[in-house]
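Thread: MotA/TolQ/ExbB proton channel family protein, structure

OP (GT): Posting the sequence first so everyone is looking at the same thing. Length is 248 residues per the record. Can we get the structure tokens written out before standup tomorrow? I want them in the notebook alongside the other entries.
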Amino acid sequence: MIPSPDGVLVKMFQSGSLIDFIIEISILSFGLIPLMAVMLLGVIAIVIERFYYFVRVVKAGEAMEHDLELVKPQNVDQLSQVAKHYENAPQSKIISAAITVRGQSAEAMDRQIEEALLWQLPKLDRNMWMLDTAVTLGPLLGLFGTIAGMIESFNAIGLGGSGAAGKVTGGIGHALMATACGLLIAIIGVCFLNYFNKRIRIAMHQMELIKTMVINRLCNTPSSTAAVADKSTSTAGVNAAALKPQGA
């Protein structure tokens, strides 16, 4: 006779043997419930690691934006200090890349910084595929457990006998346990997956803003203004020469 889920729990608490309970529930659920328990622990581990990571990254990005507002144009020392202060944040790599290629045109600097930005994307997206997979796979495993439990119940009905009722309720109970575990994994995973996707978009927006702020402060040079003024003067001289009457 296969015990119902309530009977299994009571038996576990009465005997106090956790190992026997794990072995028994593994056999009755065809190994699905322990597998989903391991998956749930993996989801929780990823959620905790990514949560603290994005808290640090977003907070560092907000502080960097405020510090960059105080940096004067062409003050490389202040930019270096900001990059060194937030060296553990991915946003600091943008400032370091901009300092390395300072003196170039805004377009060339933008390309170099964009390359440094793309190198940081895998750090933001790390382990997100595992969380997405758990969200999709959890309910599927629960559905598979439901089908297995119903098959067990129908087999018990077909065999009949005095213990048929217990076998039927036991199979249905295991099916519901597998479904509940799968839904629990999906609910936890999808909530935090959407939250982390929002954090990734915020971090990307911070990087784009920091890139623009750094380029504006490094490319607004007096030499560029003087070059533009000299070009305007020479153009005015050429126009004046063109307008000068011949033979004058």
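GT: Both are above now. Quick notes for whoever picks this up: The chain has nine helices and no strands. Residues 1 and 163 are 6 Å apart (CA to CA).
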